[in-house]
Specification:
Chain B: It catalyses: a quinone + NADH + 5 H(+)(in) = a quinol + NAD(+) + 4 H(+)(out). Chain B: One of its GO terms (biological process) is aerobic respiration. The complex is a heterotrimer. Chain A is an alpha+beta fold. Chain A has 8 helices and 5 strands, in the order H-E-H-E-E-H-E-E-H-H-H-H-H. Chain A has a 3-stranded antiparallel β-sheet with strand order 2-3-5. In chain A, strands 1-4 form a two-stranded antiparallel sheet. The termini of chain A are far apart. By secondary structure, chain B is mainly α. Chain B has one domain. Helix content of chain B is 71%, strand content 0%. In chain B, helix 5 packs parallel to helix 12. By secondary structure, chain C is mostly helical. Chain C folds into 2 domains: 144 residues, NADH-ubiquinone/plastoquinone oxidoreductase chain 6, subunit NuoJ (Four Helix Bundle (Hemerythrin (Met), subunit A), Up-down Bundle), CATH 1.20.120; 59 residues, no CATH class. Chain C is built from 12 helices and no strands. In chain C, helix 2 runs antiparallel to helix 3. The chains are: A alpha+beta, B mainly alpha, C mainly alpha. Chains in contact: A-B, B-C.
Chain lengths: 241, 322, 268
């Protein structure tokens, strides 16, 4: 097999010597931040303006690590004599990252694009209870969500864009359909998910905004009443109540 | 009084070398091994590329509690690190670094025998440690140490004897005085045998069965902590310095070099020693550990015959040229 | 010169340098004083070696004894002999001794059975042989003194010259003796016997490996013990092999008769 005895030994020496001259692969992490790829699963951000408290995420979560509290509010009829409408108002949205296994199912199932992956990963805590990120903190993570990476050249248009454009064309056939394109691919998703609909149907979204503002002003149900809530928040962390 | 001052100064220099060079080798091992594995190695201690890592290690070792196991033979357990370390200090005294009387700690008449004898004594430290720890892994390590020493002392001696035959003297400076460049190809087999056997005697990888961590934890040093453990480690690295220095002196011509013969001889010695130390590290990174039976087989069926063949060759050439 | 010799010389310079001419029992030089002191230490270590009840301690005290002897050689300028003493005795013989101790029994603490019943006889023999040696040496050299300040009388060159000129015959005789011992050791450690063809390098007794080979497929319960018996019968009774073969047979051959039977029972 081996033509020259000892050639294997020499080969081994050559391998180590060659490796020595090459660049090392060590990441100098605390000194140099890692260059993370797009769609890195660091932490989950909540874009709560989009959340309709449909509870899909909490139900799909394999770890049961999402806690959602909400209450119904009645909205007076927009037009006199009209029917009153009720809507869900989010009271609490918390993700326990000590339970989360970063499967991303909640983000996948969210029908309203309220959950996003953020590449931030430095949120270790000395107390495990602090790993339950409440609504405010989850909302803060949204600012760290990067723009989605550009599509491959020649890639199919995303489904969402196609449907959005179709809707837009149906509703306002006289406006030029090209405007949706650049708006939809606006880099920061902090706002854009709403803009898609907002831009095309401003008359629909406007009441929503006022409702949300009003809901935020109104005192909501105190935390801890819900039967489904298993993790009682600590008294000193009720800031999001 | 001048005599006393001279002796003191020499011993002091040897002592400083004894303390400093093993640290340099150790730090080099840290970095070279890391880069050979695609890593960076220590980067923080001391600021610049972790140059003070071993100093930090030493401080850590000094702070640790010195534990003696309850069932151990207390006195021998505590004595063992000194027995392991001191011989290398003694050997260092006899290694000439440059030409002339001034460049050696103490010119020993029977230099080869002195260094080999004293190096053999160092292994007693491991044996004592292995036995006195009252630990089966330590005992196994001690046994392996003893078996390894018995197997590799012979080829080492034979290879050294070949050089002594070639030079017609057993004094280390005498061998260097007699050295010619063509000894290098002439004695190359002996050099390899000597170096490999020396590696085995130092229990360096790939001959580190006595401390094979995956089998017997850390062999004879399993129960040691703190400063005594550090002394054993220091002994290992001092052993590398001594072995490389000896191989340089015996086989590579020591202070002889293509140029700079006067005044710069010590640079050649240090350079050759450093290259050999690098090879020691290189071998450690490259090769996996031998099995215990492979180790014995390598010695008895390969190194000893090679060393004997080298002696025969040396004798023939010696007779022909004289 | 070595360090200890240098130290001795330094001490000697303080008192007197002319040891050769003005020597005498009552005007000791530094070298003589250290010689006596080291001798006492060596003697004490030797005593402890034979009296201690801790086996490994005895071996380690032996190291001290032999090292002390080496220092004595050094003080007598016999440098070569000194280092060979360290190399052979301390470095190899004691290591071999320790190896043997550790391999067999080396308890920490005293071993009460380390004492022999005939210690008085041993003491007598020791004293008599020591007396004989001392008498021979004293009678041979009487008042001959080694000149420590001249050219070293025990240097390597001098030793080599006298060894290969004056003492060639004893040297060669010793070599032949060692060779005979070596050959004898090899012969004793070889396990091959006329009847079997075992690879000596594996160190395995052939009978221990052979019964394992037939396997359960072809082995008939009745035939197996018979063949094993036949194989052990082949080997001469004086050979060391049967001792190893019998337990091997007991280990591998014994369960086999039962195993196929259960197998057959399962088939039927």
């Amino acid at each position: 097999m081996a033509p020259v005895p000892g050639s294997g030994l020499a080969k081994g020496l050559a391998v180590t010597l060659r490796t020595m001259t090459k660049k090392t692969v060590t990441e100098q992490y605390p000194d140099v931040q890692p260059d993370l790829p797009p769609r890195t699963r660091g932490v989950i951000g909540l874009f709560e303006e989009n959340c309709t408290v449909c509870m899909l995420c909490a139900r799909e979560c394999p770890d049961w690590c999402i806690y959602i509290d909400s209450h119904k509010e009645t909205i007076p009829a927009a037009t006199p004599g009209g029917r009153e409408r009720s809507r869900n108002v989010l009271d609490r949205f918390a993700i326990d990252f000590s339970l989360c296994m970063y499967c991303g199912i909640c983000i996948e199932v969210c029908p309203f694009d309220a959950l996003f992956w953020s590449p931030e990963f430095e949120y270790a805590e000395t107390d495990i209870r602090d790993l339950t990120h409440e609504r405010d903190k989850l909302r803060e993570w949204m600012w760290t969500v990067p723009a989605p990476p550009a599509l491959d050249p020649g890639a199919e248009e995303p489904k969402e864009l196609t449907t959005a454009r179709r809707t837009a064309e149906k509703l306002t056939p006289h406006t030029e359909p090209q405007t949706t394109g650049p708006q939809a691919t606006e880099p920061r998703p902090a706002k854009p998910q709403v803009t898609d609909a907002q831009a095309t149907r401003p008359e629909v979204t406007e009441p929503h905004a006022t409702e949300q503002a009003r809901a935020a002003e109104q005192p909501t149900r105190p935390l801890g009443d819900s039967k489904q809530q298993t993790d009682q928040p600590r008294p000193d962390r009720e800031g999001d109540a | 009084m001048n005599d006393v001052l001279d002796v003191t100064l020499r011993l002091l220099i040897v002592f400083v070398v004894f303390l400093a060079f093993p640290l340099v080798v150790g730090q080099t091992e840290h970095k070279v091994m890391a880069h050979m594995q695609g890593r960076l190695g220590p980067m923080y201690a001391g600021g610049f590329h972790g140059w003070a890592q071993l100093v930090a290690d030493g401080v850590k070792f000094a702070q640790k509690e010195d534990v003696v196991p309850a069932g151990a033979d207390r006195r021998i357990f505590q004595l063992a690190p000194a027995v392991a370390l001191l011989p290398y200090l003694l050997v260092l005294v006899a290694i000439p670094i440059g030409p002339g009387e001034g460049a050696v700690g103490q010119a020993v008449d029977a230099g080869i025998f002195f260094v080999l004898a004293v190096m053999g004594v160092g292994v007693l430290g491991s044996l004592m440690a292995g036995w006195a720890s009252a630990n089966k892994f330590s005992l196994l390590g001690g046994l392996r140490t003893a078996a390894q020493l018995l197997a590799y002392e012979l080829p080492m001696l034979l290879a050294a004897a070949s050089v002594a035959m070639a030079a017609g003297t057993v004094s280390l400076p005498g061998i260097l005085d007699a050295f010619e460049w063509w000894w290098l190809p002439w004695q190359i087999v002996g050099a390899i045998v000597f170096f490999v056997a020396g590696l085995a005697e130092l229990q360096r990888p790939p001959f580190d069965m006595p401390v094979a961590d995956s089998e017997i934890i850390f062999g004879a040093y399993t129960e040691y902590t703190g400063l005594r453990f550090a002394l054993f480690l220091l002994a290992e690295y001092a052993g590398i310095v001594v072995l490389c220095g000896l191989t340089t002196v015996l086989f590579l011509g020591g202070w002889h070099g293509p140029w700079g013969a006067d005044g710069l001889g010590w640079v050649w010695t240090l350079l050759k020693t450093a290259v050999l130390a690098f090879i020691v590290i290189w071998l450690r990174v490259t090769y996996p550990r031998l099995r215990e039976d492979q180790l014995q087989k390598l010695s008895w069926t390969l190194l000893v015959p090679l060393a004997l063949a080298q002696i025969a060759l040396t004798g023939i050439v010696k007779v022909v040229i004289s | 010169m070595t360090l200890s010799a240098t130290a001795g010389r330094l001490a000697a310079e303080v008192t007197t340098s002319a040891a050769a001419e003005t020597h005498g029992f009552l005007s000791p030089t530094g070298v003589e004083i250290s010689f006596v002191l080291v001798g006492l230490v060596t003697f004490g270590a030797a005593l402890v070696t034979v009296t201690t009840r801790q086996l490994v301690h005895a071996a380690l005290w032996l190291v001290v004894t032999l090292g002390g002897l080496a220092v004595e050689y050094l003080l007598l300028t016999a440098e070569f002999i000194a280092w060979v003493q360290v190399l052979i005795y301390v470095g190899s013989v004691v290591v071999l001794l320790l190896f043997g101790l550790m391999l067999t029994r080396a308890p920490i603490g005293r071993s009460p059975d380390a004492d022999s019943g005939n210690r008085w006889a041993a003491l007598t023999v020791a004293v008599v042989s020591a007396a004989a040696l001392v008498w021979v040496v004293v009678d041979a050299f009487r008042t001959t003194w080694i000149d420590l300040d001249g050219p070293a009388a025990g240097a390597t060159a001098v030793t080599g010259a006298s060894l290969f000129q004056n003492w060639v015959l004893p040297f060669e005789a010793l070599s032949v003796l060692l060779l005979a011992a070596l050959v004898g050791a090899i012969v004793l450690s070889r396990k091959t016997t006329p009847g079997t063809t075992a690879d000596p390098s594996t160190g395995k007794a052939p009978t221990a490996g052979a019964p394992a080979k037939p396997g359960p497929a072809k082995s008939r319960p009745a035939a197996e013990p018979e063949s094993a018996r036949a194989r052990t019968g082949e080997v001469g009774p004086a050979e060391p092999e049967p001792a190893e073969a019998r337990p091997a047979k007991a280990g591998t051959g014994e369960p086999r008769p039962t195993a196929p039977r259960t197998d057959e029972g399962g088939v039927r």
